[in-house]
Amino acid sequence: MKYNVIIVGAGPAGIFSALELLEKSPALKILIIEKGKDIDKRQCPMDASGAPCMSCPECDIVSGWGGAGAFSDGKLTLSPEIGGFLSRYIDLPTLQSFIEYVDSLYVKYGAPEELHGGDEKENARIKDLASKNDLMFIPSKIRHIGTDKCRDVLKKMREAVNGKVDVIFETDVQKIITEKKKITGIRLKDGKEIYSDYVILAPGRASAKWLEAEAKRLRLTLLKNPVDIGVRVEVPASVLEHLTGITYEPKMVFYSKKFDDKVRTFCVNPYGEVVKEHIKEIWTVNGHSYAERRTNNTNFAILVSTFFTEPFDEPISYGTYIARLANFLGGGVIVQRLGDLMKGRRSTHERISKGIVEPTLKDATPGDLSFVLPYRYLSDIIEMLDALDKIAPGINSRHTLLYGVEVKFYSMQIKLTDSLETEIKNLFAIGDGAGVSRGLIQASASGVIAAREILKRYGRP
Ligand SMILES: Cc1cc2nc3c(=O)[nH]c(=O)nc-3n(C[C@H](O)[C@H](O)[C@H](O)COP(=O)(O)OP(=O)(O)OC[C@H]3O[C@@H](n4cnc5c(N)ncnc54)[C@H](O)[C@@H]3O)c2cc1C
Do residue 354 and residue 428 come from a single domain? Predict the structure, then answer.
C-alpha cells in the first residue's frame, strides 16, 4: 500500500492539511489515520448517563474526527499573538493571512459570520484603561462557534473529504518508519506498515508523550516549553459585561510584582459554565460557553507560565503533580470562595451557599486551594485579581469562586523548519502535539502550512 501523504490524527491540524491537499490537488492519494472514532460515533458515557468518568481506553472527548476541538467552545481567536507559536516560523503578516484563510474555511463549513472584538476605538479605550492599572490588553477578533455547533461544522468537513480521502478510524499509528533520514511510512499497532512519500504528524496534546518518545527514538532535536498552572475564576456575568460585551474575550497579561512572573487571563466564557476535564487520570478544570444556553456567570482562567531551566525539565510531570494533589485532597476539582482563601480558611457547602455566585460546576468539592497551589502561584493569582478588580470592580470580591486547578500542558517542541518539516525529510509535525499551536486557528493554520509545502514539492504552488 502506498500513499502520497499520510496524516496521523484527525484534529483541526490534520483535517486542514487534508482539506488543503484535496482542494489544490484532488489526484493525490491521501490517508488519514485516527485512533478515535468518527464524528457521529463520538459519545462520552458521562454525557449519556451522568456516570463518573470511566477512563475509556480511548477518550471520546479528545479523540476522534475533530480531535480535542470537537467539543470545544469553538472560539476562533484571529490574532497571531494568541493560540500558538507559529510566529516563530513565519512573519506576522504571512501568519495573519493564514489565519484569515483558515477562518474563512470555518465560515464556509458553517461557523457564524458574526465577529466579536473588532471595534478599534473600543479596543483602544480598554487598552488605555488596562495600561493605567498594570495590565496589558491583547485585542483580538473572535468568532464564536459555541460548543453545541462545533460538531456540525466538523461534520461538514468530514463530508467534504468523504470518498475522496481514505480515513481509517480506531487505529493507532505506533511507529514512524524512516530510511536514511527520509520518511517512508508508518507502522500501525497491529504491525501493519503503510508507505507514503510524505507523513504529517498531527497527534494533538493528548498524544504529545507518544510523539516525544518517537522523536527521541528518531533522534530529533527537542526544545523546551512552559507549563501553565492556575485557577478558573467565576464571577457574576455583570462584573465583566462592559468588557465581554465589546471584546468577548478580554485577554490581559500581568507581570506580578513579587515574582515578576507572567500571569494571564485565558479562555473567557461570558455567561458560560465551568467544567471538569479528565486528562490522563487527573481531573482539571476548564470552561465553556454555549451559543444557545446561558448562565448568570462568566468564567475565565488565570494562569501562571513557568519555564523550568535545569536540571529539572519535566514541566508536564510538575503540572500533573499539582493537579493530582488537588484531586487527592478534593476527590476531584476543588472550589473555594476568594473570601475564604483570603481569611485562611477552607470553603464549605454552607459558606458557598451564602455567596452571591452560584457555582456552575456542581460537583466541585469545597476546600482550600492554599494546600494545593505553591505560594508563588497563589501570590501571582491574588495580585492579578487585584489588578483586574481596578478595570472590572467586583472581580476581587469575597464571593468570587476559584476552582482548582487549571493546568495547560504544552508538548515538547520538535525542531522544525519554517514549513514545519522535521529534521527527517518529508516528515512534518503540526498542531498542538508538536508544540506549535494551542488553539483551533493556529492548529488549523499549521495544517495548511505543511500541506502547501508538500503541494509545492509536487509542483503545485
Ligand atoms: C475542553 C477544550 C476546550 C477548548 N476550547 C478551545 C476554544 O474555544 N478555542 C480554541 O482555539 N481552542 C480550544 N481548545 C484547544 C483546541 O481544541 C486544540 O488547540 C486543537 O484541537 C488542537 O488541534 P490538533 O489537531 O493539533 O490536535 P487534537 O485536536 O488534539 O487532535 C489530535 C488527533 O490525533 C489523534 N491521534 C493522536 N495520536 C494518534 C496516533 N498515534 N494515531 C492515530 N491518531 C492519533 C487523536 O485521537 C486526536 O483526534 C480547547 C480544548 C479543549 C480540550
Answer: no
Pocket lining: 373 vs ligand 1, CB cutoff 6 Å: no
Judgement on whether residues 392 and 263 belong to the same structural domain of the protein? yes
Residue 147 CA, distance from chain mean position:
14
Q: Does the Cβ of 74 fall within 6 Å of ligand 1?
A: yes
d(C-alpha 78, C-alpha 346), whole Å: 40
Q: Is 173 in the pocket of ligand 1 (CB under 6 A)?
A: yes
Residues 158 and 231 in one domain: no
| Domain span at 252 | 227-409
* Rounded alpha-carbon distances, angstroms, from residue 51 to 47, 59, 147, 172: 8, 14, 21, 27
Domains of the chain: total:
2
Q: Which residues contact 1 (CB under 8 A, 6 or more apart)?
A: 194, 195
Cβ–ligand 1 distance for 64 under 6 Å, the answer: yes
How do 297-306 and 227-236 pair as beta strands?
Answer: antiparallel
What is the 395 CA–ligand 1 centroid distance (Å)?
A: 31
Q: pTM of the predicted model, to two decimals?
A: 0.83
Residue 227 · residue 316 · CB < 8 Å: yes
Ligand 1 centre to CA of 68 (Å) is 3
- Between the CA of 412 and the centroid of ligand 1 the distance, in Å, is 15
442 lines ligand 1 (CB under 6 A): no
75 lines ligand 1 (CB under 6 A): yes
> According to the model, what pLDDT value does residue 248 have?
81
Which residues does the chain have with pLDDT short of 70? Answer: 47-53, 461
Report pLDDT for 208.
Answer: 84
End position of a domain, from candidates 375, 390, 409: 409
Report CA(415)–ligand 1 centroid distance (Å).
21
- Residues 400 and 421 placed together within one structural domain of the fold: no
